[in-house]
Each structure stands twice: as structure tokens, then as C-alpha cells.
Write a structure and sequence with these properties.
10% strand; 3 strands; 31% helix
Length: 160
């Protein structure tokens, strides 16, 4: 996907045993509010492919189940991710992939915050600001090249 790798030899971790997620997390009807748990959201995010490597975000430990917080009563989800290197040039793309995936599978009642883990990125504050600014996200999603990259990262892999 990218010709020059910032982290040419990332550490690759074993995947956790999976639980099949619902295809979407949309409520059955407007009155039924089915609770969503941490593992269910993780199961939707775990297979997102890294933009620079042929590995999933789970395999690179960019995303973990413990880094997902849900407040179902307040309809709020926070996802914290950890780039593989402090100067990761793809941090905003990874965050955008996480946001787009959640936009596609969570009920619209949820507010989502995407954050870089504290101390894990050189420009943490700037990345967090970009990822949680509605106008910046909307502008990014108008860029066809960026949308293609996001869609490629979100495309399902056909591994067993």
C-alpha cells in the first residue's frame, strides 16, 4: 500500500479467538436498545488491515479489546489505539479507518471518540484533534484517494 515503511519489521502478535459479530450493531427497532459490549466492537475492528503492512490492527496490537470503552447509558464509545512507532505517518489513516468502520456498524445514536494512546505518538494532540473534528473527517472522506485507502483497509480478508 505504501512504498516506504516507517516500521519495516513490526512485531506481529497472535490473534485472539474470535466470536462472530453481528453484521451490524443497529437496533432492531427504535424502541429496542440492545446493549453493545467491548468484545463486540473489538470483533468489528480487529480485522482492519494496517495501511503499511499485510497484518491486521489486532496482529500489530494497534487495537486491543481493553482499549475500547463503552458507556451504553450515554451512548458513547471511546477507542484508543497505539501506533507501532512514535512517528507513524499512518496514524490519522488508521484512526479514520476505525471511525469509518464504527460509522458503518454502530447505531447512529452513538458518539464515537477515536484517540491515540497517551505517549504513543509524537503528534498525539494533533492526531486526536483531526480524528474527532467532524468537519475534518467529512473533508477527508471527500478525498477519493483517501476513501480508496480506507476501503482497502476495511475490505474483509478471506482467512479462516
Amino acid at each position: 500500500m505504501v512504498s516506504e515503511l516507517i516500521n519495516a519489521n513490526p512485531i506481529v502478535y497472535e490473534k485472539k479467538e474470535r466470536r462472530a459479530p453481528r453484521s451490524t450493531l443497529i437496533d432492531v427497532d427504535e424502541y429496542a436498545v440492545e446493549p453493545i459490549d467491548q468484545q463486540e466492537i473489538f470483533d468489528h475492528l480487529r480485522d482492519i488491515k494496517d495501511p503499511e503492512h499485510p497484518y491486521s490492527l489486532e496482529e500489530l496490537k494497534v487495537i486491543t479489546e481493553d482499549a475500547i470503552e463503552i458507556d451504553d447509558k450515554r451512548n458513547h464509545v471511546t477507542v484508543t489505539f497505539t501506533p507501532t512507532v512514535e512517528h507513524c505517518s499512518m496514524a490519522t489513516v488508521i484512526g479514520l479507518c476505525l471511525r469509518v468502520k464504527l460509522m458503518r456498524c454502530l447505531p447512529s445514536r452513538y458518539k464515537v471518540d477515536i484517540r491515540v494512546a497517551p505517549g504513543s505518538h509524537a503528534t498525539e494532540a494533533a492526531v486526536n484533534k483531526q480524528l474527532n473534528d467532524k468537519e475534518r473527517v467529512a473533508a477527508a472522506l471527500e478525498n477519493p484517494n483517501l476513501v480508496d485507502m480506507v476501503n482497502e483497509c476495511l475490505a474483509p480478508s478471506y482467512e479462516p
